[in-house]
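To the structural biology subgroup,

Please find below the input and predicted structure for Phosphoribosylglycinamide formyltransferase, which we are adding to the shared reference set this quarter. The sequence is reproduced verbatim from the submission form. If anyone notices a discrepancy with their own records, reply to this email rather than editing the shared folder directly, so we keep one authoritative version.
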Amino acid sequence: MTLKNGETRLNQNISRVTPPRKEDSNSLLLAPKSRQLTRTQHLTLTLTFTNITHLTMSSSSTTETCRLVVLCSGSGTNLQAIINAVADGTVPRSKIEKVIVNRKTAYAVQRAEKAGIPTRYFNLVSGGFTAKGEKDEAKLREGRGRYDAALAELVLQNEPDLVVLAGWMHVFSAPFLRPLEAAGVPVINLHPALPGRYDGANAIGRAYEDFQAGKLENNRTGAMIHYVIETVDRGEPILIEEVEIRSGDSLADVEERMHSVEHGLIVKATAKVVQEILERKKQ
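Predicted structure (tokenized):
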């Protein structure tokens, strides 16, 4: 068969660089001596492979991220603090997967959308879980239970590592908390009061009323970030910061001072919990 010139040259080159194969008495192919590794070369390759494997594993561990879902009801100033902290790395290696609101007018939606974060409006009444203006306690309890269960399912669709309540005006019951606990997902909440004081709604206003009546201990209230449990605002505190109420302060003054503290506190606490989650992921 006539070969093209290029093919002839190629075959000739191959014959020059390919060493002849040798066979022993058992017809096993032996590696050419020129390709056998010395002990030093073998050790060098082994160490190099080990180092590459270690670097690959280290790189993989540092790229682990913490997936967040944030729940809001209002203007979203605390959400904005978290968005900024995630963006600049103050909250390490994290991504906000979704922001859920329960009030249609919540400005938190605009903040999330501006940051490119998916949002969802999920409301107790508009979702059909309870009738508007319902007064029957049994029906309200049943409806809230179904709402909480449905919201837990919605939250878990994003497979979060952490749920942050940042100004969320709805008290959760077992149908929300237990599925998240079973999935190993902690829930943390911002509450504008010190541990064991002013549980529930209007905490700042109640502290201010006590101050005016001379009943506020050391003229100080505060804010805390705590883990959420079924007992309202009684979960284990993560971080606490006191806020002084001064003579001549209006309620608006106290609220402004409190909100300023809240923004820093929610970032610090979120970063702390996220770091703990990332450490566990390494194990």
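Summary notes: The radius of gyration is 31 Å. Confidence is low (pLDDT under 50) at residues 1-34, 43-61.

Regards,
Lab coordination
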